[in-house]
Amino acid sequence: MEVGEIYYGHLSSMDPPKNKFFVLAGIELNQNIVLLAIVGSELEMAAIKSRDLRNMMVGMDVSDYACLRHTSKLNCSKVVNKELTEVQSHINSGQFTKKGTLRTIHKKKMIEFLLKSPRVSPAYKDIIKGETPTLIEFK
Question: Is the dihedral of CA 115, 105, 22, 32 positive or negative?
Fold first, then answer.
């Protein structure tokens, strides 16, 4: 697992729970935390009322990401936190499937926008900045 990897799977924390694409935005080994940025359709992202928050979206075109069926947006205005052990278990069992990796420019924008977002806590921003270990290898 590495920051910038794109996964697809059922996220029970969504309202309502559903299958979504998401990107690993931060990993903190000592606190057992993984931060996820959610990929949504342009229509879903347009429903966000605040212009400032809508400006914190990274466009994801199907020409760059073959796993997508349509142009989408990576919501960088907030993150979803999950337990690292839970995410690892879902990956190992196939419940979460790796679909690709963000292009470098999109990964940089994701990090930039998350660090600017008023909806991301200072503690999570420290994780996103990479001040903690961020690479996990599976055996």
Answer: negative
